[in-house]
Amino acid sequence: MLQLLYIQNYAIIEQLTLGFSPQLNIITGETGAGKSILMGALSLILGGRADSSVLRNTDQKCYAEGIFSIDEKPEVIAFLRANELEFDKELVVRREIAASGKSRAFINDTPVTIQQLKELASMLVDLHQQFDTLELGNAGFQRMVLDAMANQLPLLQLYRLQFNQWQKAAEELEELRNQKAGFNKELDYNRFLYDELEEAALAENEMEELDKELQLLSNAEDIKNVLSRLHFDLKESETPIVSSLKQMANQLQQYQSFHAQLPGLSARLQSAQIELLDIANELSGVSDAITSDPQRLNWINDRLAIGYKLFKKHNVLTTAELLAIQNNLQQKMQAVLNIDEAIAEKESATAQLYQQALEIAQQLSTARHQQAPELEQQVNQLLAQIGMPNARLKAAITESPLQADGIDAIEFLFDANKSNRFEPVRKVASGGELSRLMLCIKSLVARSIDLPTMIFDEIDTGISGEASKQVGIIMKNLASQRQVIAITHQPQIAGKADRHFYVYKEPVGETVKTNIRILSQEERINAIAQMLGGEKPTAAALENAREMVIG
User: Which Pfam families is this protein grouped with (predicted)?
Assistant: First the structure.
């Protein structure tokens, strides 16, 4: 509910503060007094287009601020939480326009984007202006009307959850099929690469080990010569090093009792002699083990040639990387075998989800078909009540493929003159007809769902007398359940107000500014009498106005 509207420096409005009733608020005034300007300022806090040309004083910013009560608005609270905006029982929405044309939006003093402001505003205010036909001609709005009147919104929410699950499964199925197509395209090439690696049959670290063995075999003779010479020098020469060390140790041993360090030195000579003897024996064993094998050498070269060719082909440097590629290729080929099973399982799950969604969609469709005649009857009765006795609305429902809202394509058709030539509302209804039709429909929908604050800007153009009275009655009934704000020229509608605002121009020095005030009961009677009979109303007009106000 809009509790307070504050406007500053907008067009001919210098500064205004309006406090609204929670029920029916009527705004009247002379033509050109600034009623439409008031709506323009209000549209700013609803995310409307900002233009620096509206600034009354270009030295100051333009402000439009609305204070809303959000006690019973769970979707508003959910939006504020989702956007990490602080909130209390009251919500302050503000828009500022600088002389440069730059505008800023705030929700509870926190800067927000215009898109965020628009999204929130749609939950707070439903602004309907004459010739505003987009919503009424919108298939989504038409479907919502039927579902609301049939009390099917909870079932629609359940359906959408099911529909989204089916869509997700269908997307996953399509992805699997695309994967299979890609797999099949690559399968032959992957199999060729895998067979080539499998035929090579490389063992773990084989290339690295063969490379070492190649180095050994290529230098076998030189290595054996070095080993033999070392063995000879250590053990078999005329003065072998091992024998010389043994003699040195023996010579030192006979004197080791004469000095404290000699036993240690003697022991070290003995250890060196034993270690060198062991080395000499190992050198001999290693030399014997090394053989020159030309056949083995050729085989290793051939094997390495195969391996290095594969290294180059796959752009790797190690046997481990090559084996990892082989394993990956094997998994890809196995995936081709597994994907058919996965596709079959996903097809079954998708079909089941589709069937579940279809069953709920059929329930929705049945309820819509049942509700359509009742909607037509109620709307047509209201149209006759407000001065359109020959107008007819028809809710045409045709079957469509499964979509986000079910299996129904819904189109409101309209015949203004009992011609039985029904055409889509958006094509044939005039601005005034659309406005009154929207009022009738929204008054019916309001019985089923919690609509936001509803604002009607001169939707009563082109009607008078009894039709105006009936529009006033509809608005009054509508306002018993939610806040309604209406700008009107019709006294019959103004007489139904719970709070009556009067917009007027006021000369200030050499300028003119717009002002607005709440009328007392006597002021209301006089204002309505003027709407009925001119600036100087007759006694009859005053009496008529009194009856409209007091009843």
Answer: SMC_N (PF02463)
Q: What DSSP state is assigned to residue 101? A: S
507 bridge partner residues: 512
pLDDT in tens, 126-159: 776 543 444 666 778 888 889 988 889 899 999 9
Q: Which residues, 6 or more positions from 250, have their beta carbon under 8 angstroms from its beta carbon?
A: none
Please state which CATH number belongs to domain 1-130+432-519: 3.40.50.300
Rg for the chain, CA atoms, rounded: 47
HSE, side-chain direction, 13 A CA sphere, residue 138: 10
What contacts 191, CB < 8 A, 6 or more positions away?
333
Dihedral of alpha carbons 491, 493, 496, 497, sign: negative
Closest listed residue to residue 405, CA positions, set 155, 165, 122, 126: 155
Per-residue pLDDT tens over the stretch 216-240: 777 777 777 788 888 887 877 777 8
List CB contacts of 160: < 8 A, sequence separation 6 or more: 404, 405
Cβ neighbour number for residue 316 with a 10 Å cutoff = 15
Tell me how far CA of residue 498 lies from CA of 85, 337, 485, 534, 551, in angstroms.
33, 75, 10, 23, 13
Residues 409-425, mean pLDDT to the nearest whole number: 88
Give every CB contact of residue 332 below 8 A, 6+ residues apart in sequence.
183, 186, 190
Strands of the sheet containing 13-19, edge to edge, are: 13-19, 2-10, 62-69, 90-97, 103-107, 110-112
Q: Which helix (H) or strand (E) holds 178?
A: helix 153-200
Q: Where are the domains of the chain?
A: 1-130+432-519, 178-338
**Per-position DSSP letters for 492-545, written without gaps between them:** HHHTT-SEEEEEEEEEETTEEEEEEEE--HHHHHHHHHHHHH-SS--HHHHHHH
Between strands 423-424 and 406-415, the pairing is antiparallel
Give the single-character DSSP code of 55: B
Closest Cα to residue 131, out of 455, 416, 457? 457
Mean pLDDT, rounded, for 114-121 = 90
Q: Per mean pLDDT, which of 64-73, 135-144, 253-262 is the most reliable?
A: 64-73
Judge whether residue 296 has pLDDT over 90.
Answer: no
Separation of alpha carbons 411 and 506, rounded Å: 48
Nearest to 120 by CA among 62, 73, 71, 72: 73
Backbone torsions φ then ψ of 64, nearest 5 degrees: -135, 125
Confidence band of 72 (pLDDT split at 50, 70, 90): confident
- Cβ atoms of residues 286 and 231 within 8 Å: no
Kindly give the pairing relationship between strand 103-107 and strand 110-112.
antiparallel
Distance of CA 518 to the CA centre of its chain: 44
Average pLDDT over residues 423-434: 75
Q: Across 167-176, 253-262, 339-348, 508-517, which has the greatest mean pLDDT? A: 167-176
pLDDT, the chain, mean: 85
